[in-house]
Amino acid sequence: MAGRVALHLPAPAPATVTPEAARCFRSLAHLQKEEALTLWSGGWSGAPGAFLLSRELEEELLRADRNEEALGLAQLFPLPPEMFFLRGLSPPQAEELSKRTGTALCGGYRQQPRPGGVAPLWFFTGSRWVWRPSLVLDAEPPLAESFPSGSGEAGLPLIHLLIGPDASPDGLPAPDRIVQTLLPFLDHVLPENLSKGLPSENVAPKAPEPAPRTEGTGSDPGKDGLLPPFFADPLPLSTPRDFSLAAGTATPWRTSPDQRPRHPDKVLRTLSPYRETLRPAGKTGSIPPQHLPPGDFQSTTEGHLMMEEDSLTFKFASGRLAGIAWGKNTPEAGLTTVPRRAQGFFLDTTRRRPAVAYLQTRHAAWFSGESARGVEEIANLDCASGSLELHTSASLITGIPGLTLSFRARFPETLPEAPCSIRLFQIPLRYVSGSASTGDTSLSAEVITPDGGSLALNLSPKPGRITVAAWFLRIPISREQSLLIGTAEPGVRIATAFEIEIIRTPQGLLLAVEPIFRHDGILPQDLAGTSLAGTILLARGDTPLETLVIPSSEKTPLYRFSRTVPE
Questions:
Q1: Which of 67, 278, 312, 498 lies at 20 to 30 Å from 353 by C-alpha?
Q2: Closest residue by Cα to residue 204 from 307, 132, 296, 118
Q3: What is the model's pTM?
Q4: By the 8 A CB rule, do 386 and 409 touch?
Q5: Angle at 228 (CA atoms; ends 224, 232), nearest 5 degrees
Q6: How far apart, in whole angstroms, are the C-alpha atoms of residue 272 and residue 59?
Q7: pLDDT digits (tens, 9 = 90+) for 513-565
Q8: Are 123 and 83 in contact (CB under 8 A)?
């Protein structure tokens, strides 16, 4: 890689490219020609890579380079980008994309770096992973003061200048801002400092099979070959639009079991977290009709109910999932998840003593039919400024392993303006033994991606949470048995967000999974009045993956993943 300073820039939106901005790009172009500055492409839409299929990732690269707006980076600069740095890729995704397209890819950081800090930055190039120390700087002046003293010494880190959506204040176009910030800084470090030696490159050892390890500490990742389950960049990735809403907003533009989307450009437009000029107006999905079960309601239910499917028994309390047990005639007889109802709650974090409102059942009933039987629940969650409604339908369907859980959540027209925490359907699974020092070896969960790849995810047995994108999660319930939790979209494999949390309770540390919706902070106002819908599937951990794909011809009504935006 030429140069010591890397400008990490997404393809600009049309609204930001004024005549002054065009002159700014020309000011940077001569630095690129002189190899004083190397250009890294941040993609076209900024959509999180973990939610994109292979064809959509290719489209992201192509449009970032050249597009119909004539604003691709290869169209604005004399030399094309030397490196692509897409957001939130997993290591297998980066490897596959690089090998398929012949493009050098920057994976990212193990954890979100802080501006002004030095962290290992991973690259996949030449069929291997390497890393280089990188000094992360944002676009806030004075950049020159952030540059370390003794800048002429060899071995100093690569300078990673990130220009993202938050780098530009209102009223100042991003390209103008870039040059106004960069030029004084470049005068400080160029050209003499760049000629004193490039940062050292470190080759990562071959990652362990079957997936990269994700545990361990140390400042030198080249010694043990540790790669993260998903790469991080200096911009925050875990926003509601990026994670909890991603599957719902993109699905209407996807189709067919062969995983080839009809409209990859529309998927990218819809999943773009910050390019509002690319977001389609109006609805991104139709309002799901009231769910009609494949049979007749038999009776309302207020107590406990059990449904058996092969070697699993699903337990319900007042219409809501309240535990899963392994069968009586199997070697693992007696094994069960924590016998508690899935929990939804709203937490007002602004009070001295936080106020909690829990998901309350309004109506529950069981039903049966020729091909399916199950339980429905309608529940409400008070959110200070209104009531959120959650409608779930849990079904055992002939020919589909495990339990399907269709859901529809409707947000109130007015949302609270203060910080809060929301969980809609947090499923308690098991108590965690061990401690952070002794460890619990059974806490090595597995992330399964839509293309069938897998990533090891080692969970620390101490309070905390992690959000991942997955087609399915395989969560250990014991040292021998596990549970699969994933998406059940007919005819297509899609990734959505799952939050894995370890919670301190009076009984011990509890491992729980939230597969529908979670949020911490101020709710985005564009959620007001919207509806989310979809279907998840729970099955034994040893279920063959090919049987988890719901046939597109499935006649049992299941909510498809969608997000409805009010007119």
A1: 498
A2: 132
A3: 0.76
A4: no
A5: 130
A6: 13
A7: 999 888 888 887 778 888 888 899 999 999 999 899 888 877 777 888 887 77
A8: yes
